[in-house]
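Q: For a teaching handout, I want to show students what a protein-ligand complex looks like in token form. Below are the inputs, and the small molecule is coenzyme A. Please produce the holo structure.
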Amino acid sequence: MVTQSTVILGTGSYTPERILTNEELSKMVETSDEWIRTRSGIKERRIAAPGESTSDMAVHAARAALTDAGLLASDIDLLVVATITPDLPLPAAACIIQHKLGMRTNAACFDINAACSGFIYGIDTACAMLTSGRYHKALVIGAEKLSAIVDWKERTTCVLFGDGAGAVVIGCSDQPNIGLIGSRLGAYGESVDLLCIPKGGSDSPATPESIAAGDHFMRMKGKEVFKLAVRAMDEAARDILEQYSLHADQISLVIPHQANLRIIEAISKYLELPMDRFFVNVDRYGNTSAASVPIALDEARKSGRIKPGDITLLVAFGAGLTYGSALIRW
Ligand SMILES: CC(C)(COP(=O)(O)OP(=O)(O)OC[C@H]1O[C@@H](n2cnc3c(N)ncnc32)[C@H](O)[C@@H]1OP(=O)(O)O)[C@@H](O)C(=O)NCCC(=O)NCCS
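A: Here is the structure, written as tokens, with coenzyme A included.
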């Protein structure tokens, strides 16, 4: 078969049962439901159960996506996992997930670290590998246990993040102009320090002092990230629309990274596209990094917000600062 297109065959998502509300958080750090809601739009987030790992959540989402696609784990020959919170620093979460899913051993398995843009980087990579003709069925997962890298004493970050996983199965089609139309990826590497885990990498391995200082947790300069996020997402959306000669009005639904409702509202204003064309679930899950776009995509599909023929725009930004956009025709 001549591969003309790469198409999404199924989607799935999983979020842990435990709900952590703003009210509960306000008993843990000096904050309030009102502050969190007005600054971010977040009302609650999900937190993994004790012992529940990133790979466990990924496996739930992957099974749901495989069922939706009518495929078995053994049909997959390419597994791409977007995550900044793998179960272990080494090896890749993909290998742990491969084993838990019972996938075959001659499947390519690797992780992508592009933070909150990771899922868009993941689908772009998988689609390029499928189009090469050397792979046939890909599973792309975004999964995060951010509760493990958040400093629960630091109110400026801990109120924003949550745990979860989302997945898609991608295959090939000989039909032209459907599925992943194209994507636009990039990064502002000069802004690494705006959102990072300062210590614990090979450049400065963890020490008792760095751990006491909490430098193994995520640190963020929120205001600067906010400004760059709006710029990056607006540019990534505009660039891809221009590249494929589309007007924003032709987009039926935008699935933005769910970091902050105010960021999504700013993109809506800049693109002159009303908020009802944006899928929003940040109120229920907070920012789940690489899991955010695939969870939203799955919920949008399953709630009937995506119909055959629709064009969906995915757009995200994250630590790095990375950004990415992708157009999908259904
Ligand atoms: C973090 C963020 C919500 C803060 O919103 P903001 O409008 O910049 O914040 P404001 O200027 O209104 O408030 C800052 C003040 O609130 C305080 N504050 C911070 N976190 C708080 C909290 N959880 N509860 C109450 N007060 C808080 C700060 O200490 C600061 O106080 P100061 O003015 O006395 O120094 C916002 O900048 C943001 O969302 N940034 C992007 C973050 C992001 O998306 N990161 C992920 C990228 S993938």
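A: Two things your students might notice: The two ends are 20 Å apart (CA to CA). The domain at 5-176 is CATH 3.40.47.10 (Peroxisomal Thiolase; Chain A, domain 1).
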